[in-house]
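Example for tutorial group B:
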């Protein structure tokens, strides 16, 4: 790990100001990806801006029937929140299945979303539930936020302050986890929303995506049987030591059927 300057501001304005004043700064939320990368000298920021002292970023609020979850709220806090469970119980279930207890106690929802890991769980919840990303300067629809592997719509100094979720009771998430990391080999979130069925898949491709063919089939007939004839393309699927592209195609169908069966 290289030397760096450490800052712990207590306001969003101060955090952004420190970021812009530095040569090469990075925001620190839970640190589960950033700190290991720094230890391996894959990332070498000149300044690290710890967000943990900004009180507003650690709050969960009920807002007009929905939720606003601050970016430094941990996975454990999401999983155990009565406010979250009342508005979107599937979100609590997603958080409860992330990593292990140590990861859930330190990892944050904002850090996970900003990182845009192709196998992370929260991106499926954001996309599947029709959530939006609130930053220090704007609000970005989840459909526009995730762009590619580890790439998002954020500009360089933009800071996620929270994630806004609508209240959705009819939704489920099914994940085939990697047995070591608990990341999703494939994870599928299915939700019934006011605009229709949404199906978001993580772990299968370079970035989380909506399975529009599955959505159309379920809008016509919301049943496990309706998915039987839907075949996703293997062309854009990940292939690695954990699963081939064809196996991931198969898992997408299996996990989607399991999620539908839970609703």
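The residue assignment follows.
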């Amino acid at each position: 790990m290289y030397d760096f300057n450490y800052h712990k501001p207590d306001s969003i304005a101060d955090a952004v100001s420190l970021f812009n004043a530095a040569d090469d700064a990075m925001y620190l939320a839970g640190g589960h990806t950033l700190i290991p990368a720094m230890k391996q000298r894959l990332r070498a920021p000149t300044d690290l801006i710890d967000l943990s002292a900004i009180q507003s970023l650690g709050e969960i609020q009920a807002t007009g029937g929905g939720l606003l979850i601050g970016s430094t709220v941990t996975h454990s806090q999401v999983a155990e929140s009565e406010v979250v469970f009342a508005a979107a119980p599937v979100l609590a279930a997603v958080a409860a299945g992330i990593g292990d207890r140590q990861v859930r106690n330190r990892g944050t929802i904002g850090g996970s979303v900003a990182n845009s890991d192709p196998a992370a769980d929260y991106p499926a919840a954001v996309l599947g539930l029709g959530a939006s990303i609130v930053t220090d300067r704007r609000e970005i629809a989840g459909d526009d936020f995730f762009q590619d592997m580890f790439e998002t719509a954020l500009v360089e100094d933009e800071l996620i302050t929270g994630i806004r979720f609508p209240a959705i009771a009819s939704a489920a998430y099914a994940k085939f986890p990697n047995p070591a990391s608990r990341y999703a080999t494939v994870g599928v979130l299915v939700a019934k929303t006011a605009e229709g069925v949404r199906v978001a898949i993580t772990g299968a491709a370079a970035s989380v995506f909506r399975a529009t063919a599955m959505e159309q089939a379920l809008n016509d007939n919301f049943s496990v049987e309706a998915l039987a004839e839907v075949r996703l393309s293997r062309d854009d699927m990940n292939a690695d030591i954990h699963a081939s592209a064809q196996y991931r195609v198969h898992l997408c169908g299996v996990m989607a059927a399991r999620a539908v069966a839970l609703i």
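The longest strand covers residues 184-193. Compare this with the pattern of hydrophobic and polar residues in the output above.
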